[in-house]
Amino acid sequence: MAKNARKRAGKISVVDEQPQVHNIAVSPQSQKRKRHIDEPQEAGNTSPKRAQSASAKMAVFQPELLQAIQDTIFKLESSAHIVEDATCSGCRGTCTDCSNAHDSPACRRSVFRVQKWLGSHFEKHALYDLGFCINLGHSGQPCHLNKNPPIDFVIVHTNGIHKCRVLYCLCQNQKPNWKALQLVEHRLFPATSDTPQTAFTFAVLDEFHCHSLSSKSSAYDYFNALKRLVDATFPHLVPDRYREFMLVMCFWRHLALLRHGGQEHNIDAILTHRRQGSLVVWCPACPEIGFNVDEKTLELATDSDMHIFTLIVSLDGNFRLQSKKKKGDPNDTALCGGNAYFVEDTAYLEYLKRIGKADEASCTSILKAVCQQDRAKFKDTEVSGVVAAQCRHQIYLPQGMVDLTKGEAYARTDYALVLGLGLEGLRQRWILVTYDVWCQYHINLKSRFANFPGWVEKSKTNAVRGAIPKMHIHGHNRSCQLKHSLVYQKYSGMTYGEGIESAWSEQNHAAASTKEQNRGHRHDTLDDFNGFWNWTKLIQLSSTLLKQYRKYSKQLVICQDDLQKMAALVSPELLSDWEALYTNGRNEDIFETKDTAPTQRKIYEALIEREQSEYGEAGFLRRGLELEEQLLLMKYGDLSESDEDRILEELYHNLCRWRSQQAGLYPQLHPLPPIDEDNIIDTDLRLPSSLSREQRTSLKLTGAADMEKDLRLGLAYDLLHQLKLEINEWNSLAFSLTKQSTKSTKRIEERVRADPRLDRIKVRQHRVMNRYNDNREILLSLDYDLGTTGLKKLTADQLWGKHALQPRELGNSSHRDPWFWGVGKPGEVTPESWNAEGSPANMALKRPLLTFYFAYQDQRVRWSRKKALGERLREEVDILKEEFRRTEVSFSKMAEVWTELACRNAGKPGYAEYAHRHAAMYTRLASDCKEKWRSCEGGLLIKQFCNG
Known about the structure:
Elements (H helix, E strand, L loop, with lengths): L11 E4 L2 E4 L32 H6 L3 H13 L29 H4 L4 E5 L4 E5 L6 E3 L15 E7 L2 E8 L10 H8 L2 E3 L7 E4 H14 L3 H12 L11 H19 L34 H6 L5 H4 L1 E8 L4 E2 L20 H11 L13 H4 L8 E3 L1 E7 L4 E9 L5 H16 L4 E6 L2 H4 L3 H4 L6 H4 L4 E5 L10 H6 L15 H9 L3 H4 L4 H21 L1 H28 L3 H13 L2 H4 L9 H11 L6 H20 L4 H25 L27 H6 L3 H39 L4 H10 L1 H26 L49 H4 L5 H7 L6 H52 L6 H26 L12
Parallel strand pairs: 5-7, 6-9, 10-15, 15-16
Antiparallel strand pairs: 1-2, 3-4, 6-7, 8-9, 10-13, 11-12, 13-14
């Protein structure tokens, strides 16, 4: 490697041949010799000694030593010491004959402990008691130059903590840190550099690393388990090397990141378009200009190709990944130093100091948690959480994670977004950002980009578009839902923007341990977890793309068929009018009917506007009504067994979270009824309506009862609207059956009655009717006066409506629709205006497919929404095709890169072998991606999207 190349081990930069340590702080006191961290205190010296800080202990491992350890680890990849084609992984590089591995002294150390028969039972004994000694070098035989007695050691292995004897080889004792390196050559990581007396086997480090990545288990729990493996009765008598274990794991994680990231092989010399020193796992499916997308291709792409080449980024905050405010080590800095997923601390803090505290407008949505959340949960925290950026494939962006202090702030989110995009993002033409509060975040985004000098000027991005994720958007007001919905956002595909939430649910398992760590240690640990998350997504990406391609291709065919059927029900002139409105109109006019009935959501939004200090109660009650609806669906719905199991499991977790919130909001209801996992459908939600008037008064729940009353009023209107849609659907299907038949009227009626689809619709109608009547009775029990609302009791003989799809018949005017058809009709359209020239009524006379204004609005909106869905599905299929191509290209190029790195590092033992192994791995990934694409390419016929 060239002298001016930046070395990765220990984070050294070589500038003018003067090494500078960046990430391992060395205090002035550390220049003097300190007592070794695992060296016993001299007998008789009882004076208290100040414990070494974490940074001081880490400073013992100088950058030169870390590089030598890394070189030795690579050397174990070499085949120089292997005499057979097959060798055991546990002793690779130390045994010359693995056929007698159990008899080999080098392999015998993996046992460490034996059992001795005492005549009545077995008793554990250590090999130490039998005089066993680990001889370093000479294939397990003692060094003839070393006449000294063996040194007592504590070695930590996967089966416990063991005392043993170690005899060094003195053949090459002139090298610096020769003792530590001899241990590493025998797959033992020393706890210190000069006179180590504690070492950890590579096996135990690998095992804990794997467990911590997969289950987020803490080192404390893991080490206690090792102690109990040795002596479950007296674990406190087992040597405690927990602190040394934590120290070694910090270096073990970092050295692994350096190897996997290719920095030891100087991968930056080949991938010059990426940021230098990167330790991250990059997404192979996202557009990466100069790697899986040609820059010229991107420049020639038209707006109609926008969805194919758009980089989609999700932003979100997590307030579980906190850090406690405590007396820590100020010199503890991250070994990754901003080259992984967390940003570099120094520059980030300087940015925050320069920006200062800005007042941010509160979101007009009902998600006011950013402004009104409980500040008590941030008490005694130095870091209140993190905000991160992911791509649409749920892969964390490099340098896309920053710490938060007491809630989210736009300035911090800006930093995560800009650094996550990095220099690579400057070359993207189209970027789409999803964020929970995009409706407010985007307002001054362009002006805030001025805080990053040169970023906007160098950027080739036409504009940063944005939207609100599909789940969170239901917590926003109606205007936000229409303006910032991904469903109505052109060139966004079927992106849902909520993938980062599943990442948080995984990373939150580590919160209990990382909140106790020092700042640098915490960053390194979370960087490692993020890298593992990215890797799991990368190796599953081909399967994920295949699953999504099949799913959305099938949905696209169904959607196209539905759209064609809907278009066939209207005249060409009317369809042309709808097309014009869809192309030129506002989302508010296209995707929403003008209905003045106060729906549950409108009332909910009004409650949120009134609610200030008691924020959260209205949302809680609304979720309660949603859970009530789900319980009824499980009780009376017609679900498949697989769907029922999945929904039951999800419902149980939702009920548990809701019950926990209920206990916090209404402590006076204690004790609350338990949630029986085996009998979920009979769960008592204990809403205010389930209590008597006297109980609500005594428990001070009258305010909550009023809120529930208002929400249930909106629910009643929602249910009536749903009933109208069900009746319209029955009418449409019955009309289509009669038009298809040329038989007699009697035979037509028999065919209509026998059609099972009509029966299913009737079942749904009765289900809605029963739900409405039950809700109405609850309103009455809450003392609601329904006299002015027009909400009457529904009966089975009222479940009909005039055929909106049939021509006007004689005597039609004398038959009135059931009462609920008059509830919620447009207030701005009077009956007189319907009879005017060009009105919907006259339009209906000319086009008998529509006979009243409500049906007109309903049909138009349903058609518009279906058309938008079809466009998003078509875009998604196009995106997935391109992502398959990009993924295969990325894997193939990474195989070429690692093959080239093997050639460039052929003179360094083990480096070429490691690079060839990674090249073979990426070759397999590329082949797997190609096979999966071939399995679905052409397997599903994608119909040409039909506008009509």
